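INFO batch 0412 | record 1 of 1 | parsing
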Amino acid sequence: MIYLTGDVHSKIQGHWEQKIAGSELDASKEYLEILKKYKISCTLFLNGKCIEEEYEKVRELLNYNVEIGGHTYNNFGKMNPVKGYINRKIFGCVYGSERYQKKDIDKTINNFKKINLNIKSWRTHAFASNDKTFKILKNNEIKYVSDLFGERPFEKEELIHMTMNIPDDVDTISYGQTKPENKNPFASCVKGRISAEEWFEILKKRVIYNEKNKIPSVILIHPITMKVLDNFKLFEEVVKFLKKYKCYKFEEFKI
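INFO prediction complete | emitting tokens
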């Protein structure tokens, strides 16, 4: 049981991957074309601001076998280390106060309604949520949230937490120091960096383990990262591997 996901951002000033590859929605279309080729579905989490910036490109994504979920309005706006530190100290998470979170979530959900989408899934940018986030999401009829790491999905207070159990791409591969401990198939993405090929081996080992033990694999692979890395060459190899298993969207999951 594979749940492949990706995060898609609006135009973020100074973001180096966007400077190389351009629109993340363009990268998402290429990503979905590869999934279509191998008959695999996925869930993509989009910033609400994408609707305002590139409305037609968001609409084009709906032509594919994809579920669209929310990913905050615009990655918390003009976030910086000082503001992030203050938010963590005062509110317990980078996302900020309950009032700010509600405003941001409401705005994101309402933007998707402009294209007749009532989203049911959510991933907070940088997984920077807390219990207040989950309460607001539940009150907005969000059913699935993917902000936590853990072995198996679980349900709590009417929310199904689609816990990620494989190191994600952007926090793990390509850049920075390589450390031996990251070659462990159960390595955390916070331990350092490994090569893209080593990350793929970890992904394969973990998926095989999960399938053997009837554990859903929740995988995060960013379209823009795969575009910048090698123009989707590694991603296509990952998809060829995943096509051996049944792949689902979050909205198809049941406890």
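INFO post-check: The chain has ten helices and eight strands.
INFO record closed
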